[in-house]
Design goal:
single chain, about 220 residues, alpha+beta, Glutathione S-transferase Yfyf (Class Pi), Chain A, domain 2, 2 domains, four-stranded mixed β-sheet, binds glutathione
Length: about 220
């Protein structure tokens, strides 16, 4: 199966999928696509212009969670979901929770935290309330012993590893307080553990290289 991952190395959702591809030892190529600037043929693959999407011999697939599920079925070993049905459902529950209730809430802060924009005070207050509530909820579900869903590395770790630093960093920049740490989540310790994996090291190295390329390109323009 020929697999091509479309996106860019700064994207957390792209990196979630890339972690799965790397963990499974699947061979794949990457095509850089900047978000929101897609010609019609790419919009056919990802109708909202979002990344990632995956091209396979069967066609294209968007939405990182659908891609992850497809890859798990395509290459069942090493397994990133438990074989027990219920245990697998609990891992999926946590992975969805991370995307919907941590990442999507924190995402509202990114324009000001990372991209030089501004967001209003009422938005900041609303997101703060939501994050406080959702992080407490996340703490109830997450296990961290040592992996986010329990004893084994799973798709929930692929979501957590790319999301937790963004929640921590964006809240620190906007509110002056890392809300994950404030709620007692040792995301740095967890990040160190996952960061030892070759898959995570590759994702981190690619992200840094992409960041440096963007900075150099912006400098060259000015
Ligand atoms: N639910 C989507 C979210 C993907 C997403 O939001 N990707 C961002 C990059 S991290 C993007 O493409 N944003 C551009 C846009 O929304 O126009 C997924 O899981 O794949």
């Amino acid at each position: 199966m020929t697999l091509t991952l479309y996106g860019f190395a700064l994207s957390n959702y792209v990196n979630k999928v890339k972690l799965v591809l790397l963990e499974k030892g699947l061979s794949f190529t990457e095509e850089r696509v900047a978000p929101g600037h897609q010609p019609d043929d790419l919009l056919a693959a990802s109708p909202l212009g979002k990344v990632p999407f995956l091209r396979t011999e069967n066609g294209t697939l968007c939405e990182s969670s659908a891609i992850v599920e497809y890859l798990e079925a395509l290459a069942p070993t090493p397994a990133l979901l438990p074989t027990d049905l219920w245990a697998a459902a609990k891992v999926r529950e946590l992975a969805v929770f991370i995307d919907l209730h941590l990442e999507l809430a924190a995402r509202e802060l990114y324009p000001q935290a990372f991209f030089g924009g501004t967001i209003g005070d009422s938005q900041k207050a609303r997101v703060r309330k939501l994050l406080d509530k959702n992080i407490v909820g996340f703490k109830r579900l997450a296990v961290f012993s040592p992996y986010v869903a329990g004893k084994t590395f799973t798709i929930a770790d692929c979501a957590a590893y790319v999301t937790l630093p963004l929640v921590a960093l964006s809240s620190k920049i906007i509110y002056g307080e890392d809300l994950l740490a404030a709620h007692g989540i040792d995301w740095k310790g967890y990040g160190k553990l996952i960061g030892q994996r070759p898959s995570a090291q590759r994702v981190d190295a690619d992200r840094k290289a992409d960041q440096e390329r963007s900075i150099a390109a912006a400098r060259a323009k000015s």
